[in-house]
Amino acid sequence: MQFLVYLIAYPFLWLISILPFPIFYLFSDFVYFLIYYVVGYRKKVVRENLVLALPHLSDKELLVIEKKFYQHMCDMFLEMIKTMTISHEEMSKRFKLMNIEVVKEYENRGKSIILFASHYASFEWLLTLNSQTKFKGVGVYKKIANPYFDKLVRKIRSEYGTDLAETRHAIPMMAKNAKQTEIMYAYGLVSDQSPKLDKAVYWNKFLGIEVPIHTGAEMLAKRYDLDSIFIKVKKVKRGYYEATFVPVCDNPREAAEHEITDTYTKMVEQQIIEAPEYYLWTHKRFKHRR
């Protein structure tokens, strides 16, 4: 059954990916209409999140952000499909790395790094970074239940030479890589989701609400002595993004407990405050809160 679903879906995905951008975004508008007005996908979750995170805004202002978010979400996921056939030249025009020299400075240190990202703007197109550095990019991700779609996603995300590691395989892989010095790795982690309650070891405020916060990235940075950089993505206009690299922590083993995690969390907060419509509000980020 899983293979049958994949066989039916793949031709449609491919056809979407080859659409010229003007038609591509018209199709995204149609998908937005279906998702928002007909299906109402996770509207309750989105509205609760927005009210909790942005209590200073009026209902009218929140509704504007809500609609902009759904429009962006449809764009973003269709843009991931677009990666199947988009040329590298076109991608470089649409996703610009504004200060790649920061990453180059870390290259000169001759050690691996961690790249902190968030579910904001176009986190899917961040994979283009691998083609512009000496680091070997590795994205840590959660495996998709359908093995055929999982293989497709791995193929799409590895288009620019980035390897993918399932969450459960990440630590053994990093331990193995740490024993060699021939290759420098850049490990990409998206750590702004809510951890499972039984694994919550650290609580702090996120957008003014006390919630459990992932500390795994900080743990890995300290264990394997990985300097860390935050990738701040900005949506310039529809289909165009800019990424800026902001150092989070050098010499992580000297950092205080939770210092790296707190610095990262504040950077994500600032990103959201600047333009909240580009954050992935369908996640139940505040389902565990005090």
How would you describe what is shown here?
With about 290 residues, the protein is α/β, with parallel strands linked by helices. The protein has ten helices and nine strands. The chain has helices at about 1-15, 20-40, 45-55, 60-80, 90-95, 100-105, 145-155, 165-175, 215-225, 260-275; strands at about 95, 115, 135-140, 165, 185-190, 205, 210, 225-235, 240-250. It has a seven-stranded mixed β-sheet with strand order 1-9-8-2-5-3-4. The protein has a two-stranded antiparallel sheet with strand order 6-7. Strand 6 and strand 7 form a beta hairpin. Helix 2 packs across helix 4 (about 60-80). The protein is globular, with a radius of gyration of 19 Å. The mean pLDDT is about 90.
Compile the SSE list and pairings.
Blueprint: H1 2-17, H2 21-39, H3 43-53, H4 59-82, H5 88-94, E1 95-97, H6 100-107, E2 113-117, E3 136-141, H7 147-157, E4 163-166, H8 167-177, E5 185-190, E6 203-206, E7 209-212, H9 216-223, E8 227-237, E9 240-249, H10 259-274
Parallel strand pairs: 1-9, 2-5, 2-8, 3-4, 3-5
Antiparallel strand pairs: 6-7, 8-9
Over the alpha carbons, how many angstroms does the gyration radius reach?
Answer: 19 Å
For the record, give the distance between the C-alpha atoms at the N and C termini, rounded to a whole number: 42 Å
Quantity of strands, as a count: 9
Q: Which ranges are low-confidence, i.e. pLDDT below 50, for 5 or more consecutive residues?
A: none
Strand content: 15-25%
Strand order of the largest sheet: 1-9-8-2-5-3-4
Helix proportion:
40-55%
Assign an overall shape.
globular
Largest sheet: 7 strands, mixed
Mean pLDDT: 90
Secondary-structure element series? HHHHHEHEEHEHEEEHEEH
Q: How many DSSP H or I helices?
A: 10
